[in-house]
Specification:
Length: about 240
């Protein structure tokens, strides 16, 4: 029986490496949970096996499980993404933002495209000094039908992203739109590259820092939430 359990554990670890890039999945019996969002955000269409991706159908059940489990007190989101599926990324961002548990995000390599709202979805956000964020208008791959309805769809999608980032950060709408429409920083594209402190100065990210800072802030938010809950219980 022991041998069978060892085989099952080994198979589970191999499956975790294959699907999530982790040997161990963070369990919902830990005080702090960690969600890595790495590579491209995969949505309804499958990416190639050679592409490193975060699958939204994996992240969403994890978030629901963390919200339901009373043993989970806080969530740390680690971001190093080039973007990806807009609908899937925005769905994950909305779910993170709606959690009742304290959340902190940390951009460690890049938080590009839909990675911007994913970074701002947490209650407090950090970026490492050398990490970058690219703010640009949405792009669409594949065939595009040249009719007014297509433009209206793009316009509404862009508005959803802008409204979310403005709602969840300190950046104002006009500044964000101007950053998206810059034409002198990206080759053959529009947008703005923000490195470390620049992302903080723009109002998108709260603070420059690393793992130590992010965890310290998360513990602080957890303690603050507990104190507020106790204060509300007192007559």
């Amino acid at each position: 029986m022991a041998d069978e359990e060892k085989v099952e554990q080994k198979e589970e670890k191999l499956e975790n490496i294959k699907e999530l890039g982790n040997v161990e999945i963070p369990r919902p019996d830990e005080r702090i949970q960690v969600i890595p969002i790495i590579g491209q955000i995969e949505g309804h269409n499958l990416l190639s096996p050679q592409t490193k991706a975060t699958k939204y159908e994996h992240v969403i059940p994890q978030l629901i499980g963390m919200e339901r489990d009373d043993r989970v007190e806080g969530l740390l989101i680690i971001l190093n993404t080039v973007g990806g599926d807009v609908e899937a990324g925005l769905a994950i961002a909305e779910m993170i933002n709606s959690l009742s548990k304290p959340t902190v995000s940390l951009v460690i390599g890049g938080g590009h495209s839909i990675g911007v709202p994913l970074a701002t979805s947490a209650r407090y956000s950090f970026i490492s000094p050398t990490a970058t964020m690219i703010v640009h208008p949405i792009r669409m791959t594949g065939m595009v039908i040249g009719v007014p309805q297509t433009f209206e769809y793009f316009n509404k999608m862009q508005k959803r992203i802008i409204d979310f980032v403005v709602r969840t950060s300190r950046v104002d709408k006009e500044s964000l739109q101007n950053m998206m429409l810059q034409t002198d920083e990206l080759l053959n594209d529009m947008g703005t590259i923000l490195i470390g402190q620049q992302a903080v100065e723009s109002g998108i990210i709260n603070e420059v820092g690393g793992i130590k800072d992010a965890l310290s802030k998360l513990y602080s938010l957890i303690d603050e939430q507990k104190q507020n809950a106790q204060a509300q219980k007192q007559p």
